[in-house]
Amino acid sequence: MPERLFVCTPSKLGTFVDCPRRYRYSYVDRPTPPKGAPWAHNSLGASVHTALKNWYALPTDRRAPGALPSLLRPTWVREGYRDVDQERATYRAAMGWLETYVAGLDPLEEPLGVERVVATKTSVLAFNGRADRIDSRDGEAVIVDYKTGRSGLDADDARGSQALALYAWAAEKVFRRPCHRVELHHLPSGTVAAHEHTEESLARQVRRAEETAQDILAAERAVAGGADPDAEFPVNPGSLCSWCDFRKVCPAGQEAPAREPWAAVEHLSS
User: Exposed, middle or buried, 240 (CB in 10 Å: 0-12/13-18/19+)?
Assistant: First the structure.
C-alpha cells in the first residue's frame, strides 16, 4: 500500500518544528488537553485581519478609511484583555493602523485572492493554507501576510518564513503563474519586509516541509505501536513556553515564567 499523504497547513508544520510536545497536545492526543485563557494579541490579530478581508469585500467606491469603523467594530474580538480600558486603547490603536494602511492601498485594485485557500500535493504532502492576500503584479502572483505583533521584521524574516514560501509554491500551482515575491506587511509600523524567492529556494522549503512531515509520521507510527509518547514527541523548552496554550499541562512549560493573556498588548495602553 502506498504511504498516505500527510495533510498539513503551515501552522501544523510550524507547531512541530517549534515543539513536538505542543504538536502532540494539539493534533495527536484525544481528548485535547485543556488550553489556557485566550490571548489578547490573537484577538487583536484576528480582528484586524477580518476588517481587511471585509474592506476588500466592499464595492470599490466604498473602499475608503471612513468605512473602517463599520468593519472593525462589529467583528472586534474581545477576549483576553485585562479590562475595558485596555481593550478600548487597543481598539483605537488598531483603528489607527488600519486607517494608515488602507490610505496607501489602491481601492480599484482587485487581488487574486483575499483569505484565499491554496492547496497542492507532493509525493509526501497534501498541503493547504489560507493566505491573507494574493496580489497580481506584472503577471505574477505576490503573497502578502499581515502582521500586528512584534516590530523589527526585516527581509530575513520574509526569506526565512516557511509558511510564506509554501503559500508561494502552492499559489504558483493554483493560479498557473509565477509566484516568487513574499511580503510581510507590519501594520503598527507601516513597514513591508519582502523577499524574492527563486525556484530553488522554494524547492528547498518544500523539501524541509516534507522532511518535517516524515518526522511527524514516524513519531505517530511509533506511538501507535506502543512507544512512549513523551519520547517520540519531546518537549523543546524555551522562551515560547511562556506563550504556549498548553503551559499549564506541560511540566517543562511550567518552569517558564507565566505571561498574562494581555501581556503582548500592554504597551498599547501605557
Answer: middle
CA angle 191, 85, 96 (to 5 degrees): 25
Q: Which of 113, 147, 110, 150 is nearest to 129 (CA)?
A: 113
Query: Which pTM does this prediction carry?
Result: 0.95
Closest CA to 181 of 137, 147, 149: 137
3-state secondary structure the chain: CCCCCEEECHHHHHHHHHCHHHHHHHHHCCCCCCCCCCCHHHHHHHHHHHHHHHHHHCCHHHCCHHHHHHHHCCCCCCCCCCCHHHHHHHHHHHHHHHHHHHHCCCCCCCCCEEEEEEEEECCCEEEEEEEEEEEEECCEEEEEEEECCCCCCCHHHHHHCHHHHHHHHHHHHHHCCCEEEEEEEECCCCEEEEEECCHHHHHHHHHHHHHHHHHHHHHHHHHHCCCCHHHHCCCCCCHHHHHCCCHHHCCCHHHCCCCCCCHHHHHHHC
pLDDT digits (tens, 9 = 90+) for 232-269: 999 999 999 999 999 999 999 899 999 999 999 999 98
Name the more confident of 3 and 164.
164
Handedness of CA 105, 109, 110, 111 (dihedral sign): negative
C-alpha cell at 240: 515560547
d(CA 217, CA 139): 38
**Top-confidence residue, 270 or 233:** 233
Residue 2, pLDDT above cutoff 70: no
